[in-house]
Amino acid sequence: VVAAGSVLTSMLASRREAQTAQDYPPVGQIVEVGGVAVHYVQAGSGPDLVLIHGAGGNLRDFTFALMPALTDRYRVTAFDRPGLGYTGRTDAGYDSALTTAAESPAEQAALLRGAAEQLGLDAPIVLGHSFGNAVALAWVLDYPGETAALVDVAGVSMPWPGDLGYFYEVPGSLWGGLLV
Question: What is the distance between the alpha carbons of residues 116 and 51, in angstroms, rounded to a whole number?
């Protein structure tokens, strides 16, 4: 019964993923970094500004209002973080429904920095929103002198008092993740 349920769930998820990709295709370009596809949108001119979205989001979080408001002063590049939107995973093991492991902020920063380098971004300002700020902070700390500034927008880079609650604990667990 469990095996049949697992196969059925996998089939339904694949079908929904294909439908979602058809309904919401990539809005930008893809650059390959070490064999990993990195989805990005770039617009404007001026000093380079990189936008890194938060948990559970994608680069579209920035394309509705923020990017258009900045492109008259900056060359703005928004990236999908690994495993979100249309950016691939840095390790196939992270793509399994049977794992709670994922790329660390440092792994994500390395991938996005590699993409920025391929795109010719010069000492970008790196803006991170929410969990994206942990990635932006890792970028700035792991590659000193390669960025112009760090912008923290509601970043989760400081200790969190108390626990995270069921909203985070359940999907973050193996069984909760499988259920969700």
Answer: 11
pLDDT tens, N- to C-terminus, the chain (180 residues): 777 877 787 788 889 888 988 999 999 999 999 999 999 999 999 999 999 999 989 999 999 999 999 999 999 999 999 999 999 999 999 988 778 899 999 999 999 999 999 999 999 999 999 999 999 999 999 999 999 999 999 998 877 777 777 777 777 777 777 776
Distance between CA 124 and CA 77 in Å, rounded?
A: 9
Taking a C-beta distance cutoff of 8 angstroms, is the pair 157, 133 a contact? yes
Among the listed residues 111, 108, 147, 156, the one whose alpha carbon sits nearest the alpha carbon of residue 129: 156
Tokens standing for residue 80? 């999908």
The answer to whether residues 135 and 52 touch, using CB atoms and an 8 Å cutoff, is yes
Q: How far is CA 33 from CA 37, 87, 137, 148, in A?
A: 6, 10, 20, 22
Interstrand relation of 125-129 and 75-79 (parallel, antiparallel or unpaired): unpaired
- Pairing type for strands 36-44 and 75-79 reads antiparallel
